[in-house]
Amino acid sequence: AGGCELRGRWVASAQGSYDGAVRAIVELVGALELAAEARGTVMVVDDDPSVRKLLVTTLRDAGHNVLDIGSGAAAIEALASLPTEPLPLLLLDVTMPEMDGTEVMARVRATHPQVPIVLMSGHTSSYVEGIAQAARPDGLLTKPFDLNQMREVIATTMAAATTRQRRRNVG
Fold it and tell me: 113 pLDDT exceeds 90?
């Protein structure tokens, strides 16, 4: 949701004026800087090994430790065994055998509500939008996604989570 919002502002600004485009770029750079502060262990959960490999490689190149998980049940087990420090990000496929992403998300929200979650899906946009409205993830990636889109959604989601955490610590 956060990445889509920022991307929408970028397109609207770029079409509207040079100043608007510059403001959108400054916002994206700020989001990337906040995301860089949130480095830590990111969990990638997808039953497709090629998608996991792309995400894991990109996140490791960006300086994150990455948990590479192939199923929803394994994600729940791994989350339970992590230390108390919250994950800065959970990337979660919607459609997986045995336990789908929405069920995993509900369980994670019940035990670790502070963990930002980006749902990923290769289904049609109307299906994905319906899931997003019901599940209310922090971000959404529609497969196939390109690296720039993926980085933008990850950066804005992590930046928003960092900002929320700072507000909680201050207030």
Answer: no
